[in-house]
Amino acid sequence: MRVTDVLEMLAGGATVGEIVADFPYLATDDVIAALGFAARQADHAIVTAAE
Questions:
Q1: 2-51: per-residue pLDDT in tens?
Q2: Taking a C-beta distance cutoff of 8 angstroms, is the pair 1, 8 a contact?
Q3: d(CA 32, CA 12)
Q4: Residue 13: helix, strand or coil by DSSP?
Q5: pLDDT of amino acid 42
Q6: CB 28 within 8 A of CB 21
Q7: Which of 6, 18, 28, 50 is the right S-S partner for 34, CB 3.0 to 4.6 Å?
Q8: Angle at the Cα of 47 (from 45 to 49), degrees rounded to 5?
């Protein structure tokens, strides 16, 4: 299961409980870890052009 798959399910309205129920090899902590991974990937420095 890719992080993208989990994020797409959450974005589509699935709850953590639904995801865990549908994919028994995942735990709640796995879904939370996917969110944490995505947050870290999105965190980057903002660069602005000099005027």
A1: 999 999 999 999 999 999 999 999 999 999 999 999 999 888 877 788 87
A2: no
A3: 16
A4: coil
A5: 86
A6: no
A7: 6
A8: 175
| Sign of the torsion angle spanned by Cα atoms 30, 34, 31, 36 | positive
Which residues have a Cβ under 8 Å from the Cβ of 3 and sit 6 or more positions away? Answer: 34, 37, 38
Three-class SS state of 37: helix
31, 20 Cβ separation under 8 angstroms? yes
Residue 50 one-letter amino acid: A
Identify the CA nearest to 8 among candidates 33, 43, 34: 34
- 6: nearest Cα among 47, 39, 45, 14: 14
- The predicted structure's pLDDT at residue 44: 80
Amino acid, res. 33: A
H-run or E-run covering 41: helix 28-42
